[in-house]
Design goal:
There is one protein chain. The chain is of the alpha+beta class and 179 residues long. The chain has two domains: 1-38; 40-174, no CATH class. Helix content is 36%, strand content 30%. It is built from four helices and nine strands. It has helices spanning 4-38, 86-101, 139-143, 147-154, and strands at 43-49, 56-62, 68-77, 80-82, 108-111, 119-120, 125-132, 157-164, 170-174. Strands 3, 4, 6, 8 and 9 form a five-stranded antiparallel sheet that branches. It has a four-stranded antiparallel sheet with strand order 1-2-7-5. A hairpin with a 5-residue loop joins strand 8 (157-164) and strand 9. The longest helix is centred in the N-terminal third of the chain and has 35 residues, at 4-38.
Length: 179
């Protein structure tokens, strides 16, 4: 004769074990996701056009909670990729911006594109490109009185940075010109 009580108890125990394994798996997955999210970088490129120095500035900022590891930097001018190592690419991009501005002698300019493998810590901010005009010369003198034309001219430059978190999750930051 089959002992239904013992059999029911065994089946119930197996079901409880499977259910507890399912709950454990879901909690472990959620904990792993929370850990990844707690160290997720968030790079953004912030363009600034202003009357004070630097007049044209593109800043790279890590607004995330974890470090970003740079995998690749792509710079394009008029949709043509500028190739080379970051110092050379930054110099060429800066020269093309200077050509676009015209015959104005800049007071100060600098560029600092990150290299492959560079780490950008949370909260760090650095200028990728910065141009400072001399006193008495404003962007209005160069581009006219229209912000739209200024943005159209400056949007000829595009920068894209591919980066990873410490867990190897891939992300991309792109420069967007906006008012």
């Amino acid at each position: 004769m089959v002992d239904y009580a013992a059999w029911t108890q065994a089946v119930g125990s197996v079901v409880a074990i499977i259910a507890s394994l399912g709950v454990w798996y879901c909690q472990a997955r959620q904990a792993k996701k929370m850990q990844r999210d707690s160290l997720r970088p968030n790079l953004s490129m912030v363009p600034h056009i202003g009357m004070s120095a630097p007049n044209i500035r593109i800043a790279l900022r890590n607004n995330g909670l974890g470090p970003a590891v740079v995998k690749a930097v792509t710079v394009r001018f008029d949709r043509e990729e500028i190739r080379g190592e970051p110092p050379e690419v930054g110099r060429v991009a800066l020269e093309r911006l200077r050509t676009m501005i015209g015959d104005v002698e800049l007071v100060h300019n600098r560029h600092a594109l990150p290299r492959r493998g560079d780490w950008i810590r949370p909260g760090d901010e650095a200028d990728l490109i910065a141009l400072t005009l001399p006193d008495g010369v404003s962007l209005i003198h160069i581009f006219g009185n229209q912000n739209i034309r200024m943005e159209q001219e400056l949007s000829r430059l595009s920068i894209s940075i591919q980066y990873e978190s410490v867990f190897g999750d891939g992300f991309e930051a792109n420069l967007h010109w906006q008012s």
